[in-house]
Design a protein that fits this description.
3 copies of one chain form a homotrimer. The first copy, chain A, has one domain: DsrEFH-like (Hypothetical Protein Ychn, Chain: A), CATH 3.40.1260. Helices cover 38% and strands 16% of the residues of chain A. Chain A has helices spanning 15-30, 60-68, 88-97, 103-112, 121-126, 143-151, and strands at residues 5-10, 34-39, 116-120, 138-141, 155-158. Chain A has a 5-stranded parallel sheet. Chains in contact: A-B, A-C, B-C. The B-C interface holds B 1, 4, 6, 16-17, 20, 23-24, 27-28, 30-31, 33, 79-80, 83-86, 90-91, 93-95, 97-98, 100, 154-159 and C 9, 11, 13, 40-42, 59, 61-62, 64-65, 68-70, 122, 125-128, 142-144, 146-148, 150-151, 153, 156-158.
């Protein structure tokens, strides 16, 4: 299915939703489907590289934001933080019991399998991030570029 | 429109989002569109059958999870639980005033109209559910199977 | 790309998600893509016109709901209200620093650029809204009409 394409906007910065996006991305790559993920707004948290974060040339707000925003995959909150009193610890424990890899493993899998990572240019600017703070293989894309790309995809999802 | 297909991932376990998914599914069936819903993560709560829940062969975590997770459609929380101080009771009251069926009615309608229900295999495993605990007509699907199916759909939504 | 179409369901009534929907809508119009937004449930808050709200012929519940629901774009909450202790004020401040227009500006841009606004008929009824309370160019659409329309779109998103 080399001519098929999956286009995902990852807007959410939550552990479980990021997991869903990455499981779909990895599964699609196993089927040789081209996968593009466009990280926007909170979704950018997933691709920040803790080793490359910087405080240079940032406004006070941006510095504050950079410090409190999640620092990489395992730092993301659950979308249902208090869902029935269960937290991320419990979900991760259950995943471990079933030998399911964690978010970092799915992220690394996606990189290795050739999922294309795009950071939404406007979100990067508004949030005061710098492209250098993201994982090495992240490219920048405008909303127009995302749309041109999504128009050619067979499946488009907003997560 | 027998040759058209709507593919929904229901990831959310919230009353109002499940309602949106089922209204779209029922409307599509009225137009003879084929409808597949892939229930993943929290979305699985919608298709648990209270009469068929079991505690056998479950780990301590799975038992705890099974007990606190919503037990069927009317037990789901609102996505905006505290939205402007309004709760599910109020929304349901307003729906009743306008003769709008509740979630259970939409779920039964979807079953009767032939909407295809698929439980995400990985989510079922991680959450410690068993296929026998779901509504009778629920089948299991892997992420690969969902994708193969969604590639052929005319509309794909992540809810 | 006059023959291309983007179809968005805006179900969410949150500032950041509405922003994402409108940025995509505006960007698509710049590329001459036809854009239809189907406002459902909480998404209807975005297109309420504060100057045209009415309390006539409403039930007690509907009046209460009308009073507490957000009154136009800038009144919407953030989807991550307490995300890392950051509120909407901070996000808006950061947007201002980067000369990014606010939600109202994006909404006006979408109207000017010819984005088609549709209010979900069932949601309007359940929430006790009246078509006259919305922005002047909002039309009503049933779920069936939305689906017929989305079937012909090249990109469909649920936000």
């Amino acid at each position: 299915m080399d001519d098929k394409k999956l286009s995902i906007i990852l807007f959410s910065g939550e552990y479980d939703k990021a997991m869903a996006a990455l499981i779909l991305a990895n599964s699609a790559r196993e089927m040789n489907i081209t996968v593009n993920i466009f990280f926007a707004f909170w979704g950018l948290s997933l691709i920040r590289d803790p080793a490359r974060m910087s405080m240079d040339d940032k406004s006070a707000f941006e510095k504050m934001f950079g410090l409190v925003a999640p620092k990489g995959p395992e730092d993301l909150p659950l979308s249902k933080m208090n869902f029935a009193g269960l937290g991320k610890v419990m979900l991760k424990e259950m995943m471990e019991d079933h030998d399911t890899p964690d978010l970092t493993a799915f992220l690394k899998g996606a990189q290795k399998k050739g999922v294309n990572f795009y950071a939404c240019k406007l979100s990067v600017e508004v949030m005061g991030y710098k492209l250098e703070e993201f994982l090495p293989d992240v490219k920048e894309q405008t909303a127009n570029e995302y749309l041109a790309d999504a128009l050619e995809a067979d499946i488009q999802l907003f997560i």
